[in-house]
Amino acid sequence: STQVSQIDLSYFDIYATLTHFNFTPFLNLTQFNLSGNYFEGPIPSAIGNLSKLTTLDLGHNFFSGEIPVEIGMLTELKYLDLRENSLNSSIPSELGLCTNLAYLDLASNSLEGKIPSSIGQLKELQYLDLRENSLNSSIPSELGLCTNLTYLNLTSNHLEGKIPPSIGQLRELQYLDLHMNSLDSSIPSELGLCSSLTYLALASNHLEGKIPSSIGQLGELRHLDLQNNSLNSSIPSELGLCTNLTYLALTSNKLSGELPLSLSNLNNITHLSLFANRFTGPLLPSLLSNWTKVAHLLLQHNSFSGNIPPEIGRLSNLIDLDLSRNQFSGSIPLTLWKLRNILSLNLSYNNLNGPFPENIDFPFPENIDLSNNNFTQAEAFLSWKITFASAPPSLTS
Ligand SMILES: *[C@@H]1O[C@H](CO)[C@@H](O)[C@H](O)[C@H]1NC(C)=O
Ligand SMILES: *[C@@H]1O[C@H](CO)[C@@H](O)[C@H](O)[C@H]1NC(C)=O
Ligand SMILES: *[C@@H]1O[C@H](CO)[C@@H](O)[C@H](O)[C@H]1NC(C)=O
Ligand SMILES: *[C@@H]1O[C@H](CO)[C@@H](O)[C@H](O)[C@H]1NC(C)=O
Ligand SMILES: *[C@@H]1O[C@H](CO)[C@@H](O)[C@H](O)[C@H]1NC(C)=O
Ligand SMILES: *[C@@H]1O[C@H](CO)[C@@H](O)[C@H](O)[C@H]1NC(C)=O
Ligand SMILES: *[C@@H]1O[C@H](CO)[C@@H](O)[C@H](O)[C@H]1NC(C)=O
C-alpha cells in the first residue's frame, strides 16, 4: 500500500469535523496540516495515535471543547499550532511530555486555568504564544527552564501574581509581551539578564514600585512599553544605556522626579511618551539635543517647569508635540513655529506667553491648542487668530 506521510489541506475551504475520521491508515503521518478551514467539533483523542507526527497544524478553524490529554503521546512533535479556534479547556499538563516541541501556538482560543508547570520540560521550545485566552493562573517559575525561548507572548489573559524572577534565565529571549493581564508586585530586576530582548511590553497590568536599574543591561532593546501600571519610582539613569530604543512609553504611572540627563543618549528614539505621571523639573536643552528622530513627544499631564528650550526647534522630525498641563513658563520659543512636519501642537494649561511670529503657516490650525496660558490680551487675541478657536477671547477686563 502507498504510505501517506504528509497531509496538507490548509486553506481548502473544507467544512467538516474530525469526529468520525479513521486515523488507522495514517498512523505513519509526520505532518498533518488542516489550518485555515471550517473544521468544527472536538479534536478527537485518537489524534494521540499519530505517534510519528512532527507537525500538527489545526489553527484557524472552529474546533471547540478540550485540548485532548492524548496530545502528550505525540512525543516527536516539533510544531503544534491550534491558534484561532474555540478551545475552552485548560492546557493539559501532558503537553509537557512533547519534549521535542520548538513551536507552540495556542493563541486566540478560550483556554482557562493554569499555565501548567510541566511547560518547563519543553527545553527545545523557542516560540510560545498563549495570547488572547482566559488563562488566570500565575506565570509558573518553571517557564524559566525553557532556556531556548526567543518569543514569549502571554498578552490579553487574566494572569496574576508576580513576574517570576526565573524569567532572567531566558537569555535568548528577544520578544516578551505580557501586557493586558493582572500582574502585580514589582518588575523583577532579573529581567535585566534577558540581554537579547528587543521588544518588552508589560503595559496594562498592576505593576508597582521601581523601574529596576538593571533595565540598562538591555542594550538591544528597541521597544519598551510599561504604560498603565502603578510604577512609582523615578526613571533610573541606566535607562539611558538602552540607546537602541525607538519606542518608549511610560505613560499613566505614578513616576516622579526629574528626567535623568542620561536620556539624552536615546538618539534613536522616535516615540517618547511620558504623559500622565508626576515628573518635575525643567526640560533641559542638553536632554533633548540628541532626540533628532523623535516624531511623537508626549509630556502632558506632569509638573514640568521652566522654559521650553529654543533647541526644541531642532527636532525637525516632530509630528506631535504635547506639553499641555504642566507648569512651563516664559515665552514660546519662536523656533517652534519653524518645525515643518508638525501636525499637532498642544501647549495648553501652562504659564506661557508670546510673542508670536508675524506669519504662522501651520497646516492644521485646528490641531494647535494654546489655550489657558499666561498671555497678554493682545497675545491671547493673536493666539485665537492662529488657531481659529471657536470663541474669541474676551477683550474686556
Ligand atoms: C507504517 O510504516 C511501517 C514501517 O514502514 C509499515 O510497516 C506500516 O505498514 C505503515 N503503516 C501504515 C498505516 O502506513
Ligand atoms: C487510537 O486511540 C483511541 C483513543 O485514544 C483508541 O481507542 C484506538 O484504539 C486507537 N487506535 C486507532 C487505530 O485509532
Ligand atoms: C466548552 O465548549 C463546549 C463545546 O462548545 C461546550 O459544550 C462546553 O460547555 C464548554 N465548556 C466550558 C467550560 O465553557
Ligand atoms: C480561573 O477561572 C476558572 C474558570 O472561570 C475558575 O473556576 C477559577 O477559580 C479561576 N482561578 C483563579 C485562580 O482565579
Ligand atoms: C511606591 O509604592 C509602594 C507600594 O505601593 C510603596 O510601598 C512605596 O512607598 C511607594 N514609593 C514611593 C516612592 O512612593
Ligand atoms: C490639549 O490638551 C488639553 C489638556 O491636556 C486637552 O484637554 C485638549 O483637548 C487638547 N487639545 C487638543 C486640540 O487636542
Ligand atoms: C504671567 O505674566 C506676567 C507678565 O505678563 C508675569 O509677571 C507673571 O509672572 C506670569 N505668571 C506666571 C505664572 O508665569
From TrEMBL:
GO terms for cellular component: membrane. It comes from the Eukaryota. Pfam families: LRR_1, LRR_14, LRR_8. SMART domains: LRR_TYP. It is a single-pass membrane protein. Residues 17-157 form the Disease resistance R13L4/SHOC-2-like LRR domain. Keywords: Glycoprotein, Leucine-rich repeat, Membrane, Repeat, Signal, Transmembrane, Transmembrane helix. GO terms for biological process: defense response; post-embryonic development; response to other organism. It is found in: Cell envelope; Membrane. PANTHER family: OS06G0587000 PROTEIN, POLYGALACTURONASE INHIBITOR 1. This is LRR receptor-like serine/threonine-protein kinase GSO1. It comes from Prunus avium.
